[in-house]
Design goal:
174 residues; 25% helix; alpha/beta; two-stranded antiparallel sheet; 5-stranded mixed beta sheet
């Protein structure tokens, strides 16, 4: 199944500061699941026809709440692996630049858990020192560490990110 309805397939209920509850509805375009080292991970992907650049700042401003709030609705059953936007435009290769890496243009835009096994499961090209992904925004340094250029969050940072998004939604409803 490539589309999941929030409020139907997946319940999403928020509790407001006054104790009232609100049921949210929406659509998750895609959910990928993976068992990595005995732990069940999930990533959510939202398809975009235009340019969509994911940022934590936009989440805190209430401008990009869909991905983290939808992820929050499913993390009780799974560990978060990442949240992403995916461009759905037809790829066009520039014939004047034949060496252009077109896959980088259509790379998933978002954040991933900073776990080497999750990164490797996200892209088989992340197979060791000095590797980089065409699928997610991640690189492994020549020392075998996650590059500072990678868009990653620790598990605690990711959970805080999800909690902050939920708070922004609740504050906007209150």
């Amino acid at each position: 199944k490539t589309e999941f309805k929030i409020g139907k397939d997946i319940p999403l209920t928020l509790t407001l500061s006054n104790g009232e509850t609100v049921n949210l509805i929406g659509v998750i375009d895609r959910i990928d699941k993976a068992d990595i080292n005995g732990k069940n991970y999930v990533r959510t992907i939202d398809y975009k026809s235009g340019l969509a650049s994911f940022s934590n700042e936009k989440v805190l401003l209430g401008l990009q709440l869909q991905l983290p709030v939808y992820m929050k609705s499913i993390v009780d059953d799974y560990a978060p692996a990442g949240v992403y936007y995916s461009k759905i435009l037809d790829p066009v290769k520039d014939i004047d630049n034949p060496s252009e890496n077109i896959s980088k243009k259509y790379q998933l835009n978002g954040v991933t858990i900073s776990d080497m096994d999750v990164l490797a499961a996200s892209d088989r090209l992340l197979d060791g020192a000095g590797s980089s992904s065409d699928i997610i925004q991640a690189e492994i340094t020549t020392k075998g560490e996650i590059s500072k250029r990678s868009k990653v969050l620790t598990e605690d940072e990711f959970n805080e990110f999800l909690d902050n998004a939920e708070k922004v939604v609740i504050e906007s409803i209150d």
